[in-house]
Hints:
This protein starts with 5 loop residues before the first helix and ends with a helix. Helices cover 29% and strands 23% of the residues. It has 203 residues and is an alpha+beta fold. It has a 4-stranded mixed sheet. Strands 3-4-5 form a 3-stranded antiparallel sheet. It contains 7 helices and 7 strands; from the N terminus they run H-E-H-E-E-E-H-E-H-E-E-H-H-H. The mean pLDDT is 83. A hairpin with a 2-residue loop joins strand 3 and strand 4 (63-71). The chain folds into 2 domains: 6-136, no CATH class; 160-201, no CATH class.
Amino acid sequence: xxxxxxxxxxxxxxxxxxxxxxxxxxxxxxxxxxxxxxxxxxxxxxxxxxxxxxxxxxxxxxxxxxxxxxxxxxxxxxxxxxxxxxxxxxxxxxxxxxxxxxxxxxxxxxxxxxxxxxxxxxxxxxxxxxxxxxxxxxxxxxxxxxxxxxxxxxxxxxxxxxxxxxxxxxxxxxxxxxxxxxxxxxxxxxxxxxxxxxxxxxx
Length: 203
């Protein structure tokens, strides 16, 4: 995996990365995604565990990616002990880094995949922290946007739990539904104060 290259292995229509990514630490997992993109001409099938929260942020090529640490081996263990360990663990690195879904999607975009689809059925041993994704290679298309809409680009997925939710699913809205006096009080605030309050509540 760490030596995958076009020069040595060539290019392929389909690349499989099944149960591997979450056994790698940074920067190896990002480098693997980058090399997969190099050798992939059409689609990459990725099955991996994901972190449900961004407990730690790692940087690669100047961009942040959230996730959590996972301990593969005792740091003081010998190479022989690691080799005798479960075949479901890493080969040598004592730690791995599990990306969040948002960070994995951002990383796939950053290395050159242009579309990502999620495979939900058949859902074999489906867990909330395990996903099967199909990353596609294509040509980036210019979007026809109304005036001013280009300010939202480039799009980045967010690890914040309530980003991207409809307003009626945010905590401020739900508080206002349960307690109308809160909604009325917030509505009387000046616009800047109201925006700051909303940002504080949805964190």
